[in-house]
Amino acid sequence: MANNNAQKQKEDTLLEKIVSLCKRRGFVFQGSEIYGGFAGMYDFGPHGVTLRRNIESAWRSAMQAHDKMAFLDSSIFTSPKVWEASGHVSGFNDPLIVCFSCHSKLRADHLLEGIAVQADEKMTEGELNELFDANRTKITCPVCGKKNFGKVVQKNLLATSTLGKFEEEDQDVYLRGETAQGIFINFKNVLDTGFYSIPFGIAQVGKVFRNEISPRQFLFRKREFEQMEMQYFVHPKDAEKAYENWKEERMRYYVGLGIAQEHLRWKQHERLVFYARDAWDIQYKYPFGWDELEGVHNRGDYDLAQHQKFSGVDLRVTDEATKERYLPYVIETSAGLDRTILAILAESYDEDEMNGEKRVVLRFPPALAPVKAAVFPLLRNKPELVKKARDIFALVKKEIPETVWDDNGNIGKRYRRQDEIGTPYCITVDFETLEDNTVTLRDRDTGKQERVQSSEIIQRIKSTYAL
Ligand code: GAP
């Protein structure tokens, strides 16, 4: 028990340390912080924006490696009919329960899971209340420890808004709850361009909005987040094989991104969400435990069949050889950008001792590091040194735009600061540089410093990541 508590405390502190580093060094800020914060929202600061972009571009490259992959950017607002057809209006719910003692709003299914009781995804509100009532005496509020709950209420997760400024013409609309629906409603458009044929994929990255009952664990459960989704359209007879291939590929992708294999695992869904025939999650070992990073789903022809029914548009394709008309099955890979950022931060966070001093270091894979190199003049009040350093900085920055200038504080302080944002290399320009054009190249992970010809540094740094 004591061991468990110590482990839990260590995990809590790791998440707290990551949150604090993210704020201190400009990765992520609490949303609307000067107004006391806004639940489930986070703003990305200067280094967060670049880390985010680097991860997104790794995902895009992985998708682009397929010869039959189309990219799409569909709108956040769609006709409300899209969400009625998709089943999200009726079936995209989470069971809410309120603790009457501390007024916390909690997920009833999570509380039941806590005492090893599974609530089925398809249960009605009445069935959920029966299940909760049968177990009520065993469940305590995780916030205040009391057993004073109300009734379970199914809360729809779609966020809503109003479009129009003309009163009687105002229209209630849904913000998209997954990017996938934009892909399904454009499936025929993409096919009709004549560049693609079954099997092929459509990929897109974009913002998603959900009325999560209890946003929590930093970037893990937000109300506004970004998905990187790919829908692969196949003939039904080829769906199983394609599903297995995509599962293998997606696991390989995360290892290639720099996540240790032992921090990744597969978990099959016991409770299938309404659109899925089969669903597996790639889970990551977050500081708070194993949880979902990406979902890989076999959605069958559910979505195309629903949109065909609601829109009246024939979405079937023709097999050129057999002339068979059929609705393709869809294999979906659905990754969360924010969860990947959290996983990469947790994976990279480290504390060690260097030259007798404790330091915090983010050991980002160089390709993901928001800053690839920092250039320092040894002293900021020696014009000849500053000029030389500025010249070298300009050359490196031209080739490696994610290069920064830093002349604030002593060299030790500058190293610590760059270590905290995960800069793989620091380049110091000193008096020797003025004589022989060599600089000190310092490696983030080992702290090792080498004298290198300034003409060689660009190649040395670039060779550590693929452009
Ligand atoms: N189109 C399928 C779909 O949306 P999902 O499991 O609900 O499936 C897919 O979401 C991915 O989106 C998850 O694996 C996760 O990475 C991310 N995600 C889901 N809800 C999230 C939230 N509230 N905050 C951050 N990321 C979330």
Structural summary, described in words:
It is a single chain. The protein is 35% helix and 27% strand. By secondary structure, the chain is α+β, with helices and mostly antiparallel strands. α2 (46-64) crosses α10 (337-348) and α3 (80-86) crosses α9 (302-311). It is globular. The chain starts with a helix and ends in a 5-residue tail after the last helix. Glycyl-adenosine-5'-phosphate (GAP) binds next to β10, β13, β16 and α10. Glycyl-adenosine-5'-phosphate (GAP) binds at residues 178, 180, 210, 212, 221-222, 225, 227, 229, 292-295, 332, 334-336, 338-339.
What is the element layout, followed by pairings?
Blueprint (H helix, E strand, L loop, with lengths): L1 H23 L3 E3 L11 E3 L1 H19 L4 E3 L8 H7 L1 H4 L1 E6 L6 E3 H7 L10 H11 L17 E4 L3 E4 L7 E4 L5 H13 L7 E10 L14 E11 L4 H19 L6 E5 L9 E9 L2 E12 L1 H10 L5 E2 L6 E2 L2 E8 H12 E6 L2 E6 L10 E5 L5 H17 L3 E3 L5 H11 L3 E5 L1 H6 L1 E6 L5 E5 L3 H6 L5
Parallel strand pairs: 3-9, 19-20, 19-21
Antiparallel strand pairs: 1-2, 4-5, 4-6, 7-8, 9-10, 10-16, 11-12, 12-13, 13-16, 14-15, 17-18, 21-22, 22-23
Q: Which characteristics define this entry?
A:
alpha+beta; 23 strands; seven-stranded mixed β-sheet; single chain; 35% helix; 14 helices; 467 residues
